[in-house]
């Protein structure tokens, strides 16, 4: 396999911080991806070696910026459908982007002819607000249409059905939805606003009857409360829907009699999350990533989001392979992973060194260094890499004020010498909860340890599956380091 361009330093593309490489999809001999914020859709013919680059000027005049930041891509027959949003033309003024020319879009690329067609676009032409971006595309094989998930925006949010021949769009659900996944003969959609609390519930659309059903957000496998489950990616396997959220995985299928359950996973009460990345099926399981630094406030006090929450980096971004009851770390990377694809026995992993920013933190160019890393599929079967997580205990302690405080959810599978090092400023009690990703879920087991002021080393090799932690008393000056070797 030979890729031409696979490293992209920041170039002209007015937006907030950094975009990334999104929508990686290999189909019919063509590798597609969109480079954001430069608004470049790349189509590489791996048979002939040709590369076509499209600049989104079918939407509006140049200079364009944006493209896609959620991996909205689907393939049907000879077509690659790609969606998202784009400024056409982009207007940058005094650290701000004006949104008058911001469009949501869906395009079709014909792999047999090598041509791009604009299928649909939508804009409210407002200076500060915008129409809901297309954050997911799902093919409905029963009705031969595309389902669009739209959550990021101010108007026209929800789930839309798009006729892939005429380009006519029809609203099916008016509640904001960032992602969905098809399971059996239904499509499950997460419902909620990602920057104001996260997932509120899950709705299922019966593709045959057209009826909707609603399901509540899940209880936790470790029996402890959780907060802010922002939805990053969804996938299906085992006739279940898997929603990857900040703090864990929500999995299940009420349509076959199994309630949704929240499995705490890599929950540090920061913005460490499976956000702005996709999830793919590999080997019958699911491969996705939890990202260390995907969205952030650049200057303290410049946005409603908390600077410390978004900029506290507790560990590397990790690739996770989910094959219940096992969850295994199979890769450790930098600030964030933006897209994942499988091709010819290899895994293509798009990465970025910088996050999105917000509010008045726009720049006239992309601020990140983006590249495509090629890994061998055998990493799914090998021992996981050594990984460490380090976090101030003030974060989970402060979460107690919001009704939570249990942290961690560390997958131990494949690690021979896992341990936790606690630096405490007071004597305390530490409870360790042990569980796994069993479907249907089993009960967790808890064990409590006395820990002392100073340095404590907790050997985790006696535990299996996934472990989460809770201190009985807050320790705002303490620190925890979790080492997986």
Automatic annotation (TrEMBL):
SUPFAM superfamilies: Quinoprotein alcohol dehydrogenase-like
Top-level lineage group: Archaea
Coiled-coil regions listed in the entry: none
Protein's name in the database: Phosphate ABC transporter substrate-binding protein
Organism for this UniProt entry: Thermococcus cleftensis (strain DSM 27260 / KACC 17922 / CL1)
């Amino acid at each position: 396999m030979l890729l031409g361009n696979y490293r992209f330093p920041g170039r002209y593309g007015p937006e907030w911080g950094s975009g990334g490489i999104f929508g990686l999809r290999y189909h019919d001999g063509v590798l597609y991806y969109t480079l954001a914020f430069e608004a470049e859709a790349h189509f590489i013919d791996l048979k002939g070696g040709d590369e076509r680059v499209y600049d989104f000027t079918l939407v509006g005049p140049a200079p364009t910026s944006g493209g896609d930041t959620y991996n909205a891509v689907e393939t049907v027959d000879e077509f690659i459908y790609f969606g998202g949003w784009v400024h056409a033309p982009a207007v940058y003024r005094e650290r701000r982007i004006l949104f008058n020319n911001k469009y949501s879009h869906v395009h079709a690329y014909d792999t047999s002819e090598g041509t791009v067609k604009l299928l649909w676009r939508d804009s409210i032409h407002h200076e500060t607000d915008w129409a809901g971006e297309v954050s997911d595309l799902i093919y409905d094989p029963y009705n031969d249409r595309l389902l669009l998930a739209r959550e990021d925006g101010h108007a026209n949010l929800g789930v839309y059905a798009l006729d892939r021949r005429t380009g006519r769009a029809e609203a099916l659900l008016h509640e904001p939805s960032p992602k969905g996944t098809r399971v059996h003969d239904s499509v499950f959609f997460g419902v909620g606003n990602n920057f104001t609390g996260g997932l509120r519930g899950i709705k299922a659309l019966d593709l045959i009857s057209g009826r909707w059903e609603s399901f509540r957000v899940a209880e936790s496998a470790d029996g402890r409360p959780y907060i802010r489950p922002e939805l990053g990616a969804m996938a299906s396997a085992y006739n279940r829907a898997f929603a990857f959220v900040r703090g864990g995985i929500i999995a299940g299928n009420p349509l076959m009699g199994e309630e949704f359950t929240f499995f705490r996973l890599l929950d540090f009460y920061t913005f460490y999350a499976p956000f702005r990345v996709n999830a793919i099926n590999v080997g019958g399981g699911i491969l996705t990533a939890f990202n260390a630094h995907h969205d952030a406030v650049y200057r303290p006090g410049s946005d409603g989001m908390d600077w410390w929450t978004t900029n506290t980096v507790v560990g590397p971004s990790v690739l996770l392979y989910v094959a219940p009851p096992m969850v295994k770390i199979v890769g450790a990377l930098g600030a964030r992973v933006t897209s994942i694809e499988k091709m010819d026995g290899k895994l293509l992993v798009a990465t970025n060194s910088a996050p999105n920013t917000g509010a008045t933190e726009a720049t006239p160019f992309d601020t990140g260094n983006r590249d495509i890393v090629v890994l061998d599929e055998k990493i799914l079967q090998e021992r996981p890499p050594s990984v460490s997580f380090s976090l101030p205990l003030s974060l989970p302690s402060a979460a107690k004020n919001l009704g939570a405080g249990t942290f961690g959810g560390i997958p131990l599978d494949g690690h021979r010498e896992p341990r936790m090092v606690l630096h405490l400023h007071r004597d305390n009690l530490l409870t360790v909860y042990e569980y796994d990703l069993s479907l249907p879920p089993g009960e967790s087991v808890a064990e409590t340890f006395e820990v002392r002021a100073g340095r404590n080393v907790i050997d985790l090799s006696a535990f299996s599956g996934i472990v989460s932690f809770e201190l009985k008393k807050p320790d705002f000056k303490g620190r925890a380091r979790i080492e997986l070797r």
